[in-house]
Amino acid sequence: MEEFIYKDHKKLRLGYTTGTCAAAATKAAVQMLFRGTKAEWVEFVTPKGILLKLPVEHITMSEDFVTCAVKKDAGDDFDVTDGAYVYACVSRIRQGFAVEGGEGIGRVTKPGLDQPVGSVAINSTPRRMMVEVMMEEADNYGYEGGLRTVISVPEGVNMAKRTLNEKLGIMDGISILGTSGIVEPMSETALVDTIRAQLSMYSAQGQKDLIITPGNYGESFLSDKLELDLEHTVKCSNFIGETIDIACEFRMKSLLLIGHLGKLVKLGSGIMNTHSRQADGRMETLASCVLMAGGDADLSRRILNCNTTDDAVEVLWVTAFLHPTMEQLMRKIDSALKSRAGAGMEIAAVVFSNRYGVLGRTSGAEELIMLHRK
Predict the structure, then answer these.
(1) Residue 18 neighbours by CB under 8 Å, 6+ apart
(2) How far apart are CA 49 and CA 180, in angstroms?
(3) Distance from first CA to last CA of the chain, Å, rounded?
(4) What DSSP letter does each residue of 258-301 carry, written as one string?
(5) What would the pLDDT profile of 41-85 be if each residue is shown by its tens digit?
(6) From CA 350, how far away is CA 341, in angstroms rounded?
(7) DSSP 239
């Protein structure tokens, strides 16, 4: 598709979701079933209102069913399903309009997701899209019986190994997703939706005490150095504030945040989205903590001139101001986290560096560490 957005001064091409592919393939298969002739293209309007004209490929026709595929195009987004063929096999049934999953479509094994346990992982919006196109085309052709579409992605099992599906409880294939029908490159909404899905799953399982970490560094540290269990860990990326909000929404009992100083130092200034394009303030926050710890203006200036937090930690280590500075920073982080979480949930943080290990813990962190100890 030739639709674009601009992010960080870059022109990025939009794509379309697996849900759009499944619904478009279903529409094309229904039309061919009723017409008895092959179609090269299918027109489909996404829930966002964008009209797409998509090629129809891999067509198999018989009197009883029609199978065809639409190729997924993720635009300029990094997506493991980009280029995958999403197949729809449409056949007549006595009544009703059924959506089923075939090869390469995962099955839900844990509660709390969009679909109930035991169902195939085709989310509610794509399901509705497929039912609507089947009903519309049946009406267009004066057909009074029912229709069934079976969605499959032959490469889905292998693709799913590169996703969070197994951790979410979606086994043996990918999910058919999409609420707008359109893929926006580097979509923050998609990342937050993934975090929400994980917390929803844990909530439904009754697991109310979680560990959150921005990424792989934190995950490795909590497993190898703190000897904590990875089973109830959520990667929050840069979205610490949003993750806390979602955890409150699902009435979690506690969150233990574990992360590198380079990310979590920003919390000391109340910055809850730690992406560099949102805000920085790392050295300014550390410099203020140096002054609060009794350091002089010269040491504060040295911190302000550091390029990385690792450089700053080294300066503080040599001057014996590391520990008192971290104490001040932990107080700031503790205040920011508790203010965001409110009174209904325990929350604490552990801050580390790759070279010096644990730099600090906020109040209550030790108790939550013991709760999650292997």
Answers:
(1) 72, 81, 84, 86, 126, 153, 174, 175, 176, 177, 178
(2) 9
(3) 49
(4) EEEHHHHGGGGGT--B--TTT---HHHHHHHHHHHTT--HHHHH
(5) 999 999 888 899 999 999 999 999 999 999 999 877 667 899 999
(6) 16
(7) B
Q: Which of 263, 271, 279, 260 is closest to 357 using CA atoms?
A: 260
275 close to 7: Cβ distance less than 8 angstroms: no
Beta strands across the sheet bearing 357-361: 233-235, 209-213, 254-260, 346-353, 357-361
What's the confidence (pLDDT) of residue 15?
Answer: 85
Query: Pairing between strand 146-152 and 97-101?
Result: parallel
What is the chain's Cα-based Rg?
25
Residues 180 and 327: their CA atoms lie apart, in Å, by 46
- pTM reported for the whole predicted model: 0.72
Beta bridge partners of 101: 151
pLDDT bracket for residue 185 (50, 70, 90): low
Q: How far apart are CA 107 and CA 255, in angstroms?
A: 29
d(CA 187, CA 185): 5
User: What whole-number distance in Å separates Cα of residue 279 and Cα of residue 261?
Assistant: 15
Cα–Cα distance for residue pair 148/308, rounded to 1 Å: 58
Max avg pLDDT among 95-104, 183-192, 218-227, 272-281: 95-104
Average pLDDT over residues 294-323: 94
What is the DSSP code string of 44-93? Answer: EE-TTS-EEEEE-EEEEE-SSEEEEEEE---TTS--TTTTPEEEEEEEEE
Return the residue matching tokens 């029609």: 66
